[in-house]
């Protein structure tokens, strides 16, 4: 016999959604960073596991109760009837229009037939032994068959206690563990995602304020303010937050899709294990009872007529708007689904991971939009790679390549690279407050210029300092020089190698 750990700990085997079609769950803009939402099936999945825990408990109560009835009286039978029926769940496969607990469509009663008499309605539920049935029918028949168990033998009681109940206890323990692990991980993941969304919202508000401040500048002149309020830099920070948020969203979508797929296949595997256990229980009854054999055969046949994917189909039909795996996609994969289910066993584990990876709810950063994304103040006036002269312990110096940006606000930023992850500048100069000089030796193939100003991103304010930059070509040099002088850096002369009027830049200055 396969262990219960093997039964439940395999990865999900059921086919899941493709990204071709998906039922719509809302009209939110999938490209908007802040307003985008997607279905979260955490509570549904948790409640679904609860139902199967209740189902296993019901069968536990049922089997244990029959063991007690073997040495009990009619009063003990009455107690058994109450114990079993009060813990039975109600599944979506009910023929009634009312909703059930743990489903998106919930009404007042979760067990519509709780008050049905012991012998009511049996013929209507079990007359056609060839047609498929559902778990509600099985549970309904179970309640009715409690009236058939007035006597038991010691042999039957011993077998139930030693072979049936331990397997059910182990099964419910594993299902409960699986549910708690899922709930714990999902809650932690949702908390992290909520924090990232909150961070994005705060930075988005900062970007709105920064853009307003930029637009309120007098006659379009540069609005000198804290560089951290520069729309370009705020946008760059928001893009970084967006990247983290989208990654977290996509991870959660994968988690939810995997969770639903795992739940789906777990239902089938649990049902198969319950079949095995219940078939064994029925065998014991056949060996020790004469008059009740027919009753238990009916119960066994009813449970055996529940298709592995029958309950899932009804669950999906009523809750498709709340699940990552939507019914329209699942119906398109019926042939694949039936093939997988026909080969399913307790130890099998077949999952189409590509369908989860390609879930249409997942987003790419390239498609994300947010307010002021295209505002002129957030776009660089010029960007590219320059070489910056740096000294090592004040003894020697060399040129290192960095990514530099000039913004419409007049800031000159230096970043380690162009990557979104590189959103904190390591050099910030405000060009209207800088002095400039061309240190150009074009004959030697050097295209160098100097900026002298305060690095605004240092923690401790420092005096002005000389920064030497080198372009890769004459054309590149001219492009940078034109934008720098246009955006307000102080220069009174354009001749190469000249110290400008009022400037204290000298060739002997060290960085």
UniProtKB/TrEMBL annotation:
InterPro entries: AH/BAR_dom_sf, BAR_4, PH-like_dom_sf, PH_domain, SLM1/RGC1-like_PH. Gene3D superfamilies: Pleckstrin-homology domain (PH domain)/Phosphotyrosine-binding domain (PTB) (2.30.29.30). It holds the Pfam family BAR_4. Residues 379-489 form the PH domain. PROSITE patterns: PH_DOMAIN. Keywords: Phosphoprotein. It comes from the Eukaryota. This is PH domain-containing protein.
